[in-house]
Amino acid sequence: MNHSLLLHRHADSTGWATAAATAIARALQGPQRQRLLLSGGSTPAPVYRQLAQAALDWGQLELGLVDERWLAAGDANRNDRLVEQQLLALQPQARLQALAQPGSSPALSVQAANAHWQQQPLPTVAVLGMGNDGHTASLFPGARDLAQALDSTAPYASIDAGDCPAAQPFAQRLSLTPAGLGHCQQRFLLLRGNDKLDTLTTALKSGNPRHYPILYALGSSTGPLQVFWCP
């Protein structure tokens, strides 16, 4: 499909979840401390449940988020809630570094996340998703301040996606930037459904990452984007 990605096709969701979790766990093996960035949404839930069973040194892993919706702490629609329910609840040794800080603001939360990243430079693995509009993380095409996030040299930025139907009803976001993605030595993209595969194909043909931000996740010198897909 593209030399910058490797597509793994699976016939059913069970095999897909097992294969993806196994590949992610393999990327995290080793004695050194690492960072694992996770996405929200419904797609990765079965992968996280499988990953929670992996024989990893969870105490050596720093878990973080690819992006977050700016909602009150504990809101069921926050991405950290999905990770808590589908991974942390099954793996008590795992600890999650929240992206949205209580009593803060989007700008201050982003500032804190960027400072933490700078203070704790770690080998990083990212688990990504993609919408039918070609967004990944919270890099929504057409967002008001998308250009600022795309051009940022910091790993995280705040995003106002109020003009983007795919982001509704959660307009205010915190998101990994292309610069942040560039710091992720290994990237995994979890997709389900023919529509998502069609979107990825269209994005690759376009070659325009500002219209299809998923293209910012394509592989680099550290290896291809690993795409796991099932119907």
Automatic annotation (TrEMBL):
It catalyses: 6-phospho-D-glucono-1,5-lactone + H2O = 6-phospho-D-gluconate + H(+). InterPro entries: 6-phosphogluconolactonase_DevB (IPR005900), 6PGL (IPR039104), Glc/Gal-6P_isomerase (IPR006148), NagB/RpiA_transferase-like (IPR037171). Pathway: Carbohydrate degradation; pentose phosphate pathway; D-ribulose 5-phosphate from D-glucose 6-phosphate (oxidative stage): step 2/3. The keyword rRNA-binding does not apply. It comes from the Bacteria. Keywords: Hydrolase. Belongs to the glucosamine/galactosamine-6-phosphate isomerase family. 6-phosphogluconolactonase subfamily. Residues 17-217 form the Glucosamine/galactosamine-6-phosphate isomerase domain. It comes from Stenotrophomonas koreensis. This is 6-phosphogluconolactonase. The keyword Hydrolase applies. One of its GO terms (biological process) is pentose-phosphate shunt. Its EC number is 3.1.1.31. Hydrolysis of 6-phosphogluconolactone to 6-phosphogluconate.
